[in-house]
Design brief:
Length: 489
């Protein structure tokens, strides 16, 4: 068979007991025919080769740390085919190449384990997002990023990979083999079983948290935010936000900003950022303070990593930094103008108030601005293809999160509807590209506009997945994989 660990899951699937998968928020879900956890790459290859003539739908998942349907498996019964969720958690090989600070490791490594393992060898990766809960390959190949005008997506750290196609054959991908096409593969090009990345020696950062009272005029506020983006090399700007006023039943702007910025330092006397990290609701951020730590612990939240797992509607949009001041105003004003639509979702607040439940106010809206250096990865949201000649190649991002008081699917679906309205309104004007693994709703026409290499990428996708086993309906519609439409008809 294909190893011992998956035997129980396969047995249950044979009895008609499907495997239900959830994302980290438990608001995105699918029910596959079964769940398979290979012992090693050979075990995985045997499973994939067995299912190729059966045309089984295969979906490798990491830790489900996504807000949208990108990583969703195909529901059992949605097609005439079986559907399996794959976990690579046992693929934990790790090889440190000390001569050039490169690291080769398997698809089962999560950041929370990988970063300490590199630390033991005096190494770190160049940059991270704000959390360590993700699987590294899952995060990197869906466009996860941190912040910093000299920092690119995590995917650019990848120097090579070994990826398994739908027939179970391994392809070695490097800079001479379309690496820019594969770095952000979003699960559609195959099963990435191993990557090699460029690491660097350990270093320290100083992190400064500063609360600033911003101008009440939104136009002047975003001019000020753009100035902050120019001033700091690596910064995260929290705010402005919108607070729900239960008396007036309207959103009220809050123009205070919390600016977090990082600087290189030679001070190594204390490592205290990881003890007092405010990001991702792991402590209060609206205060001034300074801390020092190893670079990875100064940037990313340490375990438990996420201190808020409630529903939220969230998108993150990238656009050239030159558009920040104008785009920021238009986004904020449009979100503010939707206050009347939020009112019907407020009734639960009185119940929660009576129970003295600590929570977000229903429909508070948080806004975060970050900065990312552009790259040449084909499906990168910060790809530089098609930028105006005078563009700097630096991108700003706007992350909008609608925060409910409690988990309610009707409210969550409304948030998704609201989030879907921003790109039709502002996408072409500001050259907006959405984050692959957050809420996004564009179609293949818009996709081909923001990803000029899309047709070339689709040719590779067909070679790696000739029978449409690695796709789902979201991918087919968003990427324009028309040859796979018949699978779901």
């Amino acid at each position: 068979m294909f190893g011992l660990k998956p035997a129980l899951f396969l047995s249950l699937a044979a009895q008609g007991l499907a495997y239900r998968w959830f994302n980290w928020q438990v608001d995105i879900t699918c029910e596959a025919t079964g769940f398979f956890v290979p012992d090693n790459k050979t075990d995985l290859a045997g499973f994939v080769k067995h299912h190729y003539p059966l045309k089984t739908m295969l979906r490798p998942v990491g830790n489900g740390h996504g807000f949208g349907n990108l990583t969703t498996c195909v529901n059992d019964g949605q097609t005439e085919r079986d559907s399996y969720v794959l976990s690579l958690t046992n693929l934990k090989d790790l090889h440190i190449h000390e001569s050039n600070h490169t690291v080769t490791f398997g698809g089962g490594w999560d950041l929370v384990d990988l970063i300490p393992a590199l630390h033991e060898h005096g190494l770190q990766v160049h940059n991270l997002g704000s959390e360590k809960v993700q699987n590294y390959i899952g995060a990197a190949t869906t466009g996860t990023h941190g912040t910093g005008k000299s920092n690119q997506n995590l995917a650019t750290q990848i120097l090579g990979m070994r990826i398994m196609d739908a027939k179970g054959d391994i392809h070695v991908i490097d800079k001479d083999q379309d690496l820019d096409a594969f770095r952000i593969a979003i699960g559609a090009l195959g099963i990435i079983v191993e990557v090699t990345l460029q690491a660097e020696p350990l270093s320290f950062l100083k992190r400064t948290n500063k609360v600033i009272e911003g101008p009440s005029n939104i136009t002047k506020l975003y001019e000020f935010i753009a100035e902050l983006g120019e001033k700091y090399e690596q910064a995260n700007i929290n705010g402005p936000n919108m607070v729900w006023n239960s008396s007036t039943q309207q959103l009220v702007p809050s123009t205070n900003l919390t600016v977090v910025y990082w600087e290189e330092t030679n001070f190594t006397g204390v490592a205290n950022c990881s003890l007092d990290f405010c990001s991702n609701d792991c402590g209060p951020c609206n205060r001034d303070y300074i801390c020092y730590d190893y670079k990875m612990d100064g940037i990313a939240t340490t375990p438990p990593g996420i201190c808020y797992r409630g529903f939220m509607g969230q998108f993150e949009h990238f656009f050239p930094i030159e558009n920040l001041a104008e785009a920021g105003v238009d986004y904020f004003n449009y979100a503010m103008s939707q206050g009347d639509r939020l009112g019907p979702y407020q009734d639960i607040k009185d119940v929660l108030d009576a129970q003295n439940v600590a929570r977000y106010e229903s429909d508070d809206v948080t806004v975060i601005t970050r900065f990312v250096k552009g790259d040449d990865t084909w499906l990168s949201p910060v790809n530089k293809y098609g930028l105006k000649p005078n563009a700097s190649g630096i991108f700003a991002t706007l992350e909008y999160s609608w925060m409910p008081s409690y988990n309610n699917f009707t409210q969550q679906w409304f948030y998704q509807e609201l989030a879907s309205e921003f790109i039709p309104k502002f996408g072409e004007t500001y050259d907006v590209r959405p984050h692959w693994n957050k809420m996004q709703f564009h179609n293949e026409t818009y996709t081909s506009t923001i990803f000029p290499k899309m047709n070339d990428w689709l040719e590779i996708q067909e070679k790696m997945d000739p029978q449409c086993q690695f796709v789902n309906p979201f991918m087919i519609n968003a990427l324009g994989i028309d040859r796979c439409q018949a699978v779901f008809e």
